[in-house]
Amino acid sequence: MVATIFIIISVFFLIGGIGVWRIGIKKPEEKQRIVLKYFTYAIIVYSLCSVFAFTSYYFLALTLIAVAGFFEIIYAWLCSDKKKPFILFFGIVTYLLVGFLFLSGAQKFPGDKLLPLYGLILCFDGFSQICGQLFGKRK
Which ranges of the chain have pLDDT less than 70? Predict the structure, then answer.
């Protein structure tokens, strides 16, 4: 089953790579940033999939990602033009609540059982990113 999931993820990454290539044609000024984002995402995804499938340290990896996401929220707020404390507070509370619920649920399952769920989530996330950049109207 693990090999099948890795094959499916690889096929989706190939399709996503074609989408990234098309974005590079439509928006040459963003090509370098988009390609870097694509390969960074690929490294993160394959690393996490390997951790889920082949080790028992997946909970540690998920916790580190959750902590990094927490700091990313703060960084995005600091870089924002609209520094409204309520927005930061609401974002942090929501993130902590969802993160706690996800991590407490993930702790109950072995990593190889979480791999299909992660594969599904990354497919939706990746395709929504690429479709938004290809077909979105906002500049």
Answer: 138-139
Residue span of the structural domain in which 96 resides? 58-109
The number of domains in the chain is: 2
Query: What is the C-alpha R_g of the chain?
Result: 17
Residue 37 and residue 80 share a domain: no
Asked whether 52 and 44 are in contact (CB, 8 A), the reply is no
Q: What is the pLDDT of residue 93?
A: 95
| 3-state SS record for 61-113 | HHHHHHHHHHHHHHHHHHHCCCCCHHHHHHHHHHHHHHHHHHHHHHCCCCHHH
